[in-house]
Design goal:
single chain; eight-stranded mixed β-sheet; alpha/beta; 316 residues
């Protein structure tokens, strides 16, 4: 199969018929063998009924319905597991991404041998309250991830070589940082493509202000996991040793100072009367706890459990 189109959705019943028809028209015009995978993330409107109706008319369509709303990352992860195409295309279900971009994305993956092509909505039809935080997050992600050639990490329209999506795990709200996940997994041929961004035709956006806080926390999490998931002792242990060493040095200095004053016959203060004593004590305790944390994390990393376990209600 040439292409799998993975589309997560939540309450998008109005846009689905046009979206599926548009994708099929593009695929057939270029003689692609394809499948369209719609993942209903616990919609409360008629989205699943529409998917069932579309399935009767479109044999290339596959539908997966979650029992409840898990989020876009969960939908993408399940879609990636189900995808069979050599190239996997992701897009949003709100008709703001254009299926007309697919042939060029496919060509760049297959002919130019890229691992991942991320869309760049150079001209956006979003309010200022959404575009400004997005620019800030993209700038921070470029600096922290080292992927300097991407302007828009969170664009829904992306193309992947099949090996990429089969070797990464998307959970929490990590869909914003899939290029970073791909890089940490060893897929470094990453580039971008300027894509058209259309105004929303139906409904309203499903993302609130909380996505900015969650996005920042997920960025920190993914960078930590990417660097230290296989060696957590290096992170916690180094901080623990530094803290323990600092507290020990201060304690020795206080003891030495007291012994010196005693030997010289001068008035001295008890160590417990000095603020430095309590600082040293806290540093030693914290250092010991950090070291133990690193040790426990090292044990946990050797016995990883499944992160993605979602209740799927129906499939067509």
């Amino acid at each position: 199969m040439d292409i799998s189109v993975v589309i997560p959705l939540f309450n998008e019943d109005e846009s689905l018929p046009e979206l599926v028809e548009w994708n099929c028209r593009v695929m057939e015009a270029h003689n692609f063998s394809f499948e369209i995978i719609l993942i209903d993330d616990g919609s409360t409107d008629r989205s699943w009924e529409v998917i069932e109706e579309l399935k009767k008319q479109t044999p290339q369509l596959r539908g997966i319905k979650f029992r409840r709303n898990y989020g876009k990352s969960a939908a993408l992860n399940v879609g990636f597991e189900a995808a069979q195409g050599n190239v996997v295309i992701t897009m949003d279900a709100d008709l703001q991404d254009s299926p007309d971009e697919i042939p060029l994305l496919y060509s760049r993956i297959m002919d130019e041998k890229y691992d991942l092509i991320s869309g760049w909505k150079k001209k956006r039809h979003d309010p200022f309250t959404k575009t400004l935080p997005t620019k800030l997050f993209n700038s921070a992600t470029r600096r922290m991830s080292g992927i300097h050639n991407l302007h828009d990490f969170n664009c829904g329209l992306k193309a992947y070589r099949r090996d990429v999506i089969k070797n990464i795990e998307v959970y929490g709200e990590m869909h914003r940082y899939i290029p970073v996940l791909a890089k940490w997994a060893g897929f470094k041929k990453i580039d971008e493509q300027v894509v058209e961004h259309y105004p929303r035709k139906y409904g309203t956006t499903k993302f609130g202000l909380s996505r900015f806080i969650n996005g920042f926390l997920d960025l920190l999490s993914i960078l930590f996991v990417g660097k230290f998931s296989k060696r957590p002792m290096h992170f916690f242990g180094s901080m623990g040793v530094l803290s323990f060493f600092t507290g020990t040095v201060i304690s020795i200095w206080l003891i030495g100072e007291k012994l010196y004053d005693i030997s010289m016959g001068v008035k001295f203060r008890n160590a417990t009367d000095q603020p430095l004593f309590f600082i040293a004590l806290v540093a030693i305790v914290v250092g010991f706890q950090l070291f133990l944390t690193g040790f426990v994390a090292e044990l946990v990393s050797r016995n990883s459990s499944e992160r993605n376990n979602y209740q799927i209600e129906r499939e067509v």
